[in-house]
TrEMBL record:
Name of the protein described by the UniProt record: Probable cysteine desulfurase
Keyword Transferase: yes
GO-annotated molecular function: cysteine desulfurase activity
Pfam family, one: Aminotran_5
Listed EC numbers: 2.8.1.7
Residues annotated as domain Aminotransferase class V: 1-365
Superkingdom of the organism of origin: Bacteria
Keywords noted in UniProt: Transferase
Enzyme class: transferase
Amino acid sequence: MYFDNSATTLHKPAALKEKYVELLDSEKYGNPSRSGHALSQNSMMGIFRTKMDLAKIFHIADPNDIALTENASFGLNMIIKSLVKENDHVITTTTEHNSVLRPLYQSGADLDFLDFDEDYKVEFDKLPELIKENTKFIVTNHASNLLGNVNDLDKIHQLAQKYKLIMIIDMAQTAGCVDVDLSRYSNSIFVFTGHKSLYGPSGTGGIIKVGDFDFSNVFAGGSGINSFDKCHPKDFPAIFEVGTSNFLSQIAMDASLKFLLDTGIDNINEKIKNLTKRFYNGIKDIKAVKFYSKKPEGDFTGIVSFNIYDMDSAELSLILDENYNIQTRPGAHCAPLIHKHFATEDQGIVRFSFSYFNSEEEIDAATDAVKEIAENYMNK
């Protein structure tokens, strides 16, 4: 029973597997954007079809406002290193993944952090107190990979507009399971990954821009255009699409996107929410359990994070795996400032994260397992 979907979704739509096999068996797809022959054109059109369906999912008018990357970590590094300068001031949060934190640290920019309250809500109301003359960016996630919260993009964007900030949003945990019209957020950049709730292959992701930005080159190399120029093209999306991409996976991902469009993201979200509530309600009365994620009500993602008394999170996750065939994520989750907030740096936290492809039967089995482990631990 696989409950580590916030790391990567294990179960994918059948159509993705079929498409991947078809592409691997085919001899119809050459290197995209490098040649004028039919096989190259096939790949270019396949990638563009993926971008068109991504545009539908994110409600973007122009598919060319999407740059495809290897994953969200690549995308966030590209955007932060392309835009953030050493003399800039950046406001971010203590709920960020290291894919945001580490590039920001490397930038040398002046950083201020918004913390979260007892209801796991980031305190964006305090943003005005942090504004300086050189504040240029608000960088945050749409949802934490540990807390289960969903940040209010409308509120963040209103603040960004008021203080003339560029809004950079990490959508790794919400792309594909929370329906958002990104076209509503001007002067903003969104980064997503393909291998989580878009149910695509690993090695896929992208950047979506809403507005025009003065990007600087982070990588340089083959682009298929302007080959006699000494500098890599600065046009979007070419500035971030350097060299030969993981194009077969990018083409195959369109099968997953069509599954999402056909099923409906709201329907997917509703099922994940119901599974999350079922699991939370099943373990909430266990005295040994301490929660570190949002109560599943209102806006939330498919995450329940907790510990059993002082048991090391790695030990609990190992027992679940070896004795119950239940896969979860222990440890720090690449979110060090959350653990600093909770003082769980040594113990870590166990995270259950759910997918559209999980079942109620699996949830009930996991509930029984946690109850049994907690009872055994208390009776030691």
